[in-house]
Amino acid sequence: MEKKKIRATKIAITVLKVIAVAGLLTMAVCAPNALQALKIFDKRRRQTGQINLVLKRLIRQKLVRAFDERDKQCVKLTKKGEQYLAEYEDGHKKFPKPKRWDGKYRILIFDIWERRRRVRDELREWLRRFGFLHLQDSVWVYPYDCEEIVSLLKTRFRVGGGLLYIVAESIENDRWLRRGFDLPA
Fold it and tell me: Which of 151, 172, 177, 178 gives 20 to 30 Å between its CA and that of 57?
């Protein structure tokens, strides 16, 4: 049950971030494609239902507002939604972590051209805020599932293939990483 709650929270935050990045999202036309492009949700039958449930919950919590515009159902972030999202972005709130670590590392490798240095520096700052640890130049590590974060970052910074997400079972000499993430030795 706890795993479902963690996933629901991650999905809700991700939907809020997608809405924040897009500014205004047309659910009927844009949302399914935008969310599929971000590869946030698995390709299961309940994908659309999951998105709708999350959106309904966010509307109930007054984090987003639904309205009609030109015969299309749209959603927009409310002030309360912006504040809620800002708490995660500022590092005041953290993504919920599972009770047990699955023993796998999530590695991000990025290759962003020098002419986009500002984007690269901002991406590094976001990774620090989300709790990633710096492994080597342009290589960052996190011990928990963070595919939603990666998808959001790819979209926000328009880096697509320049940001690679890897799931690894082990990293050589990882004692310092385990200490840094407070994981069992």
Answer: 151
